[in-house]
Amino acid sequence: MILVGAQALAPKLVQLGFDQAGGVVEAGAFTFTPLDVPAVPVQSVEIEARGTTVRITLDTEMTPDVRYRVSAAGAGAAVFAGFRPPRPAARRFDLWTMLPRHNRRDDVTGDLRRFVACLQEVIDLLLAEIDRFPDLFDLERVPAGFVGRILADLGNPFPFDLDTLGQRRLAAVLVEMYRQKGTAVGIQNAVRFFLGLEVEILAIASTTLRLGESELGVDWTLGPSGRFARYAFSARVTVRLTPAQRRQVRAIVEYLKPAHTHFVDLLEPTPPPSIAHWELGTSQLGETTDLH
C-alpha cells in the first residue's frame, strides 16, 4: 500500500489517498511535518477509513497555505498545502502592509515579518470564524446541532419530538405562530403544521329550555353561566384521532387560545354504529339481533 496524495478539506481535516484499501487505521501511524515557517505543528487525533481514502482529524488548525508533509508508517509520504478558509475577494486585512514603511525597511533580519506572520494567522482564523456566523443563523445551512438551540432561543413552547427537517420548518414559522396566538386562524395553522389535520373552532351552542316540555338529560342539557359560555369554544376535527394526536391537538389549542377563553371539548367524528345482522337459525330477536 502506497500513499499517493493528500489534501486539506478543512482547518482540522486532511484526506489521504492510497493506491489500495485496507491500510493504516491508527492515528499514531501518521506524522505531520511543516515545511515552511512560521507554521503550527499538528498531530492526528482521529482517523476514518473510507475505501482507498483516509480522513484525519487534527488536534488544532493548520497554518493556511503552508506546506505540510504527511508520512504514513510503511506507506510513504505526501505534501499538501494548509487549508485556507474562503474569504471575500475584496477583503484586504494584511498586517504587514499596515505597518509604517520605515519599520518594514528596518527589518533587515526578517524577524519582524515572521512575527507579524504569526499574528496574521491568528487574525485570519478569527475572521474565518466571523465569516461562519451567518451559517449559524441560516435555517437551511445551520448544522443540525444548532437547530435545537435556535428553537430554544425563540422560546419554543411545543414539547413535540421533531426530526431535523421538522425543527428547521418550525423555526421558520414559530415567530408567525406567536403573532397569530389568540386567534382561531393561529390554532388552525398550528394543528395543520404539526399534524396535517384541519380543525374547526366552534362557539358553544346551548340548548333551549322549554318550560313544561324539556327534560333534563333528554332534550336539554344544563349549561354553564352566561359569562363562561360567552368565551367557551370547542375544536372539531374531521377524522378520528389517535391518543397521541389527541394530546397534541389539546396541547396546541390550550397554548394558542386567548387567555380569557375556555376550551371545552375536542369533537371527533363518531364511528358508525355496529348492527347485528341476522344469522338464519342462530339469531334471536331482542337478544342477539335487532329489527332494523
Q: Class of the largest domain in CATH? A: Alpha Beta
Number of helices: 9
Main beta sheet, described? Answer: 4 strands, antiparallel
Output mean pLDDT.
85
Kindly report how far apart the N and C termini lie: 85 Å
Give the uncertain stretches in residue-range form. Answer: none
What is the string of SSEs from the N terminus onward? EEEEEEEHHHHHHHEHEHE
Question: What's the overall geometry?
Answer: elongated
| Number of strand elements | 10
Going across the major beta sheet, what is the strand order? Answer: 1-2-5-4
CATH architecture of the largest domain: 2-Layer Sandwich
Q: What count of domains describes the coordinates?
A: 3
| Radius of gyration from CA coordinates | 35 Å
CATH topology of the largest domain: GMP Synthetase, Chain A, domain 3
Percent of residues in helical segments?
A: 25-40%
Structural class category:
alpha+beta
Q: Assess the beta-strand content as a share of residues.
A: 15-25%
